[in-house]
């Protein structure tokens, strides 16, 4: 039996990057996957097709995904700040509020929030992003205490830099500078984050809640 047989999973931002890798991994483990996306209908359809080709079940829906951009705080407009918080923190609130009532009614459920190691350590010119991602960690811990007695588990994943479109084009110099501080000396791959999500979605994590797991190549060690 696969780890997620008979379960339904909603994966936001699932047309690419970490979201796509998680959706594919969930499909391989037997879950019925709702593949949410913001702009790329064609890429979402490819993820759905890949899940179905592997014997899983999936359908595409529409939702917002996270964003990442740089701006020094003394030059940051309110619009840039608000857009970052809306995309990376308010979206978590809205999505969770939508699915939580049915989980509470059933007395079980797994909520997995994707945050970032920058929400743990910060980064120059990314105060808005770090604040949003730190907010996701606080949200995770508070909600875990709120709904744990009613059978719902809430955890987070804080990846380090992962080779996705979100990082965008970077110079070789920047890559060498960043990876030099990682114990594993490289950026991660989306498929190296997905197993953490499978673990948190499965019965293997039955005694985990309010936790932030960190596939980050040894950037932050907690």
Full CATH superfamily name of the largest domain: NAD(P)-binding Rossmann-like Domain
> Any low-confidence stretches, pLDDT <50, length ≥5?
none
**Mean pLDDT across residues:** 91
Count all strands and give the number: 6
Number of helices: 7
CATH-scheme architecture of the largest domain:
3-Layer(aba) Sandwich
Tell me briefly what this model is.
This protein is an alpha/beta fold. It has helices at 17-28, 41-53, 78-106, 118-121, 127-147, 172-179, 190-201, and strands spanning 8-11, 32-37, 57-62, 109-114, 152-157, 212-213.
How does this structure look, described?
The protein has two domains: 1-64; 66-222, NAD(P)-binding Rossmann-like Domain (Rossmann fold, 3-Layer(aba) Sandwich). The protein contains seven helices and six strands; from the N terminus they run E-H-E-H-E-H-E-H-H-E-H-H-E. It has helices at residues 17-28, 41-53, 78-106, 118-121, 127-147, 172-179, 190-201, and strands spanning 8-11, 32-37, 57-62, 109-114, 152-157, 212-213. The strands form two sheets. A three-stranded parallel β-sheet has the order 1-2-3, with helices on one face. The protein has a three-stranded parallel β-sheet with strand order 4-5-6, with helices on both faces. Helix 1 packs parallel to helix 2 (41-53) and helix 1 packs across helix 7.
Record keyword descriptors for this entry.
single chain, 222 residues, alpha/beta, Rossmann fold, 2 domains, three-stranded parallel beta sheet, 6 strands, globular
What is the secondary structure topology, with strand pairs?
Blueprint: E1 8-11, H1 17-28, E2 32-37, H2 41-53, E3 57-62, H3 78-106, E4 109-114, H4 118-121, H5 127-147, E5 152-157, H6 172-179, H7 190-201, E6 212-213
Parallel strand pairs: 1-2, 2-3, 4-5, 5-6
């Amino acid at each position: 039996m696969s780890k997620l047989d008979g379960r339904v999973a909603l994966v936001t931002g699932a047309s690419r990057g970490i979201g796509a890798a998680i959706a594919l991994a969930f499909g391989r483990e037997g879950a019925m996957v709702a593949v949410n996306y913001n702009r790329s209908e064609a890429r979402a359809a490819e993820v759905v097709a890949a899940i179905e080709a592997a014997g899983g079940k999936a359908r595409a829906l529409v939702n917002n995904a996270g964003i990442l951009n740089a701006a020094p705080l003394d030059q940051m407009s309110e619009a840039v700040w608000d857009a970052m918080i809306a995309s990376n923190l308010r979206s978590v609130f809205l999505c969770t509020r939508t699915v939580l009532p049915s989980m509470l009614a059933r007395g079980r459920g797994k909520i997995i929030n994707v945050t970032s190691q920058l929400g743990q350590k910060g980064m120059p010119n990314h105060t808005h992003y770090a604040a949003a991602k730190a907010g996701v960690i606080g949200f995770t811990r508070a909600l875990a205490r709120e709904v744990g007695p009613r059978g719902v588990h809430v955890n987070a994943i804080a990846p380090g830099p992962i080779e996705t479109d979100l990082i965008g084009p970077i110079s070789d110099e920047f890559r060498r500078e960043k990876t030099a501080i990682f114990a594993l000396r490289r950026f991660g791959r989306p498929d190296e984050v997905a197993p953490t999500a499978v673990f948190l979605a499965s019965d293997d994590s039955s005694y985990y809640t309010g936790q932030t797991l960190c596939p980050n190549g040894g950037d932050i060690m907690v």
